[in-house]
């Protein structure tokens, strides 16, 4: 592991006019491919049984835990028990189930899917290869070995979410399609007391476990082209026959985590959040789908923003079928929900993230949109609309309606994630820090263009409607920077530093970087050859301080996997000098995942 510092450049860019300016109005393939040795890490049982080859098998919980021989088994399957489903069905339902299963195998799989190759963005052999492959659940493992010294002030649980398909895919599969699994490490008094990982027990997962197979469509991997239409028809037909119940949500809760009002919430933007509780014995249990005591009746995106000064939780919800396509709302610290603000959009748009400032929410309206009619033409419903002009909307946090929103155009800008934003009153500007990704739809659609994710400063002048956009790093130091955060005590206020994953070779993460947003100075912490990780989680020295002693006064937590040794670790790195403080050896493999958070010891004692 090594720390590398690169001199800054952002101030030079601004002086020499390397920023793009927009007079706004108000109003060789490097697509997602893994190594050539990638094979499905989800074994099929079909070859050893009389079941059709397309039928999935569930993973044995704990299959990745070491066996008595010391070797670990990955994704060991077991066949579903015959007749388990039929015991619960009446005669009509059994007949309907047989007919629909025959249609799925005979027409959807054999005619629409198998004769056609899958793009890399929907190929399970690519998307869940290597350490992207799923693992079984692990109950709490105690007294984890530690090398170095864990700072004693770190007291709580580091929790990280990720996609972990419980069943072998039957058709296309995208990394984002997997069932949610939370990995958690309990740290106290300088010791790593335990590690556990559990599926988030969504309504979808519970039903599929009972059926012994996947029954809900994969939102990205399966729902494209004519086969996607057929799988949607299958889904609705099975629901109409009572073979499954989508009324309690269809989401996977695999992306974001936030601790709010005594609850750890696991989220994906296709459903309500799910509450997950850290138990007294450091295990994880799913409390259930959480609607904020009946106040929330729509999906919520996976990146709500917790204001460190007010304690309010700000959120968006988008709909891909009916208007309003976008809504904004917030929750008071006691969980009371505001009225919805309906934001008019011409078409449903992919809005994975947004930002807050002290007084505003900043909403991206970019060029990646949903066009369901594209499925009729054989394509993906997630498309890049090149005729659309990207823009950002600035809305007061407590606005009564969308008439208070000011839109500023920022052409050809797509930020999958935004790291922070703040107001600069002397210039009437809102400054947004995000990673601008090109090609904008390359995460969802196969592309021959090299993917780039450029850390960018975007300035929105809400008085003139003009925008400027500057790359923060110089071209000589450009690296793909994705998933990360700023000091959460300063979210929505001006920050100097951001801690972001170095997403190279894409989509793996070879280290993380501390970026000085004012100068462009880059300090990298590299995991080492054959070692990869994920999002760096910043734990401030004083979790409750509104104005910390130093913005970088804290530590970075990150899971890392050694692909040659097959082992996984939790690293503790000093956020100020970027030096390794401690390494925690984990008892089983931790797949590459998405987003995490740190729950303090005090918060653990006040869980609902």
TrEMBL record:
<keyword id="KW-0408">Iron</keyword>
<dbReference type="GO" id="GO:0010436">
    <property type="term" value="F:carotenoid dioxygenase activity"/>
</dbReference>
<feature type="binding site">
    <location>
        <position position="303"/>
    </location>
    <ligand>
        <name>Fe cation</name>
    </ligand>
</feature>
<keyword id="KW-0560">Oxidoreductase</keyword>
<dbReference type="GO" id="GO:0016121">
    <property type="term" value="P:carotene catabolic process"/>
</dbReference>
<keyword id="KW-0223">Dioxygenase</keyword>
<dbReference type="InterPro" id="IPR004294">
    <property type="entry name" value="Carotenoid_Oase"/>
</dbReference>
<feature type="binding site">
    <location>
        <position position="417"/>
    </location>
    <ligand>
        <name>Fe cation</name>
    </ligand>
</feature>
<feature type="region of interest" description="Disordered">
    <location>
        <begin position="1"/>
        <end position="26"/>
    </location>
</feature>
<feature type="binding site">
    <location>
        <position position="595"/>
    </location>
    <ligand>
        <name>Fe cation</name>
    </ligand>
</feature>
<keyword id="KW-0809">Transit peptide</keyword>
<keyword id="KW-0150">Chloroplast</keyword>
<comment type="similarity">
    <text>Belongs to the carotenoid oxygenase family.</text>
</comment>
<feature type="binding site">
    <location>
        <position position="352"/>
    </location>
    <ligand>
        <name>Fe cation</name>
    </ligand>
</feature>
<protein>
    <recommendedName>
        <fullName>9-cis-epoxycarotenoid dioxygenase</fullName>
    </recommendedName>
</protein>
<dbReference type="GO" id="GO:0046872">
    <property type="term" value="F:metal ion binding"/>
</dbReference>
<dbReference type="GO" id="GO:0009570">
    <property type="term" value="C:chloroplast stroma"/>
</dbReference>
<dbReference type="Pfam" id="PF03055">
    <property type="entry name" value="RPE65"/>
</dbReference>
<keyword id="KW-0934">Plastid</keyword>
<keyword id="KW-0479">Metal-binding</keyword>
